[in-house]
Amino acid sequence: MKALIVYGSRYGSAEKISQEIGDVLRNEGVEVDLLDSRGLKKFDTSPYDLVVVGSGIKVGSWTKSALKFMENHQNDLRDKKVALFVSCTANRDEKLLKEAQEKYLDGVAEKYLINPPLATGLFGGVIDPDSKFGIMDKMILKMVKKDLESKGIDTTKPYDTRDWDQIHKWARELIKN
């Protein structure tokens, strides 16, 4: 089996998740290619049995480059096993989790894929106060920071909501289907 993992990452969380998924698949005997979607135009997906597309979420949106990859390859992906994942901190709240699944995964799959995805993964993200945020990010971080602090979380340190065991399990399941 040969897998392609394409990711869009702004601050590195989706990239790290993609690398981890690739490592798990390789350990299971899968040949894996990992590509950053930035600057990726048309790419030959024909050698791949499985295509995993992932993105970090910022201000409620996928990265433009990851969406563009799916848009440009919509017909190519029709005959492939395709899995989608996002990296966002919505997994810290049950209500946000449901909304994020619908918007970031189900809605994106419906818009950009011809067939339903093999799997979707809503993985956590990292809120890092040392990241170089833009003005919009800083405003959102300010709101999130108050919520986190009310839950006793130290917002002066990176807050990582990624569940690596969940990510590993999800990756292993991809090759069982």
Question: How is this structure best described in words?
Answer:
By secondary structure, the chain is α/β, with parallel strands linked by helices. The protein has 2 domains: 2-125 and 161-174, 3-Layer(aba) Sandwich (Rossmann fold); 127-159, no CATH class. 42% of the residues lie in helices and 20% in strands. The chain has 6 helices and 7 strands; from the N terminus they run βαββααβαββαβα. The strands form 2 sheets. The chain has a 5-stranded parallel beta sheet with strand order 2-1-3-4-5, sandwiched between helices. α4 links the parallel β4 (81-87) and β5. The longest helix has 19 residues, at 94-112. It is globular. The model has no long low-confidence stretch (mean pLDDT 88). Residues 3-175 form the Flavodoxin-like domain.
Write down the domain tally. Answer: 2
Total DSSP E strands = 7
Strand content: 15-25%
Question: How much helix is in the residues?
Answer: 40-55%
Low-confidence stretches: none
Radius of gyration, whole Å: 16 Å
Largest sheet data? 5 strands, parallel
Order of helices and strands: EHEEHHEHEEHEH
- Class based on secondary structure composition and strand pairing: alpha/beta
Backbone shape = globular
Mean pLDDT across every amino acid position: 88
CATH topology descriptor of the largest domain: Rossmann fold
Can you tell me the CATH architecture of the largest domain?
3-Layer(aba) Sandwich
Q: Span between N and C termini?
A: 12 Å
Strand order of the largest sheet: 2-1-3-4-5
The first-level CATH class name of the largest domain = Alpha Beta
